Amino acid sequence: MAQNSARGVPARADGWRPQDSVLNGLIHKCVEEAYRRNSEAGSMTAVFGGGIVLLVLGVILAAGTGNPLLAVLVVVVLAAGGLFYAGVNAPAPQVDPLRILDVMGGPGNLPAGYLVYPPAWRAGLPEYLARVSDRQLAVAVRLCREHPGSIADLLRLVITAEQHAHEHVYGRALTESDVFRVAHRATAEWARIAPATMLAA
């Protein structure tokens, strides 16, 4: 079942968060660049469009009135008013969150531990996790520190573990502990045979 309500950044019981300064810095930079680039693109489009309209208006006024000075004055006043109006009423720039980490392959390609890293939640994780249930996310958060793969790998493992656990509960309701038990065994085995974990503890 998909999650519909807004989620906050999940936290592990031990308070652990990834400490890879290089990757953390890259995520911060991607977030800042995405919002800055989007803001600049929107502003420049409005400025260029307005400039062309004012230029045409100035030419028409100069030709119609025969007074170029008046045309320039009108254009300057309109430009100042337009810039003020645009600055006050400009909508907040819209950024596609799922595109913020394109340079890294998207939020699903982050190491699993970044499920609990707040800046990653500004970089598309809420949208990426929109179809993940609360139980699946809770299990993934419990396993994210030791899982050697990506967020996408961990979620696939948890979803598969949930399906497997569901087949073995024998008539009772499936719990988070049931899913965790199956997923933890798989994660421990994966971590054992992996050449190295992607996140140092």
Explain what you see.
The protein has 201 residues and is mainly α. 59% of the residues lie in helices and 0% in strands. It has helices spanning 21-65, 68-89, 118-121, 125-128, 134-143, 151-166, 176-193. α5 crosses α6 (151-166). The protein is elongated, with a radius of gyration of 26 Å.
List the helices and strands and how they pair.
Blueprint: H1 21-65, H2 68-89, H3 118-121, H4 125-128, H5 134-143, H6 151-166, H7 176-193
Q: Summed up, what is this model?
A:
The chain folds into two domains: 29-89; 103-193, no CATH class. The protein has seven helices and no strands.
Overall 3D form = elongated
Give the end-to-end Cα distance, rounded to a whole number of Å: 32 Å
Strand content: under 5%
Which residues sit in consecutive blocks of at least 5 with pLDDT less than 50? 197-201
What's the helix-strand series?
HHHHHHH
- Mean pLDDT level: 82
Q: What Rg, in angstroms, do the CA atoms define?
A: 26 Å
Sheet bearing the most strands, described? none
Number of strands: 0
State the share of residues found in helices, binned by percent: 55-70%
Helix/sheet category: mainly alpha
Total helical segments: 7
Query: How many distinct folded domains?
Result: 2
Keywords: Membrane, Transmembrane, Transmembrane helix
Transmembrane segments: 45-63, 69-88
